[in-house]
Amino acid sequence: MALTLLMVVAVLGNVASMSLYAAPTVTFKRVIRKKSTEEFSCIPYIIALMNSLLYTWYGLPVVSNKWENFPLVTVNGVGVLFELSYVLIYFWFSSPKGKVKVAMTAAAVLTVVGVIAIVSTFAIPDHRHRKLLVGSVSLGVSIALYASPLVAMKKVIETKSVEFMPLPLSLSSLLVSLLWMTYGLLIRDIFVAGPNVVGTPLGILQLVLHCKYGKRRQKEEANKQIGHEEKLDMEMGHHKNENVPSN
């Protein structure tokens, strides 16, 4: 029963995570269409790439005991492909100064991941201490990843607009946090459950902001539409009056 529950949560976690990885495609379609990164930041996607690389490594038999953490390998392996694609698109459409920033940040991230992989493979002899090293770093990066929406939330509060915090991304983030927190608690792995304990309340907070400022934006757009229609009506009425013959 416990094993079945674990597998169900793992499968649901994988599906939800795929949705989370795919959610930024809306943002990057806009970047491609406008050929500009606008005010979007590349940092969350580079941190997400680092997070996926580390947890993929954490789940492999080199670090974990055999394939005990296979679900982490599948979901984060796909995450690496998604996040790498986003970083490359961002790099392509960035300004020259932005390209330098992306390249330097990504190079630093890949260097850190490479060093951790080498140290955990050749300098640490047993799985327990390898998991402790890789898991600790992964936990810190994952918490930083879940904390990165705080920047977007600050912008939402300042601008009173949820334009730069898409609802699909917020919903997916909350669902993923809930599922992987459950999975981590079931397997009693703090390095899996820990970051999601942070991610869950942050996901709820994002939805609260959507409820508050999303409705406000819809109301403003509706008022603009009404104003536009009234203006058209006035212009049409003016033209009609001009066409009426005078006595």
Verbal overview:
The chain has 247 residues and is mainly alpha-helical. The chain has one domain. Helices cover 83% and strands 0% of the residues. The protein contains 9 helices and no strands. It has helices at residues 2-22, 25-34, 43-59, 70-93, 96-122, 127-147, 149-159, 167-186, 190-243. Helix 8 (167-186) packs antiparallel against helix 9. The chain is globular. The model has no long low-confidence stretch (mean pLDDT 84).
Task: Break the fold down into its secondary structure elements and pairings.
Blueprint: H1 2-22, H2 25-34, H3 43-59, H4 70-93, H5 96-122, H6 127-147, H7 149-159, H8 167-186, H9 190-243
Helix pairs in contact: 1-4, 1-8, 2-4, 3-4, 3-5, 3-6, 4-5, 5-6, 6-9, 7-9, 8-9
Summarize this structure as a short list of keywords or feature phrases.
single chain; 247 residues
Main sheet? none
- Residue fraction in strands: under 5%
What is the residue-averaged pLDDT? 84
User: Percentage of helical residues?
Assistant: over 70%
Report how far apart the termini are. 91 Å
Q: Helix- and strand-based class?
A: mainly alpha
Helix-strand pattern: HHHHHHHHH
- Structural shape: globular
Care to give the gist of this entry?
The chain is mainly alpha-helical. Helices cover 83% and strands 0% of the residues. The protein has helices at residues 2-22, 25-34, 43-59, 70-93, 96-122, 127-147, 149-159, 167-186, 190-243.
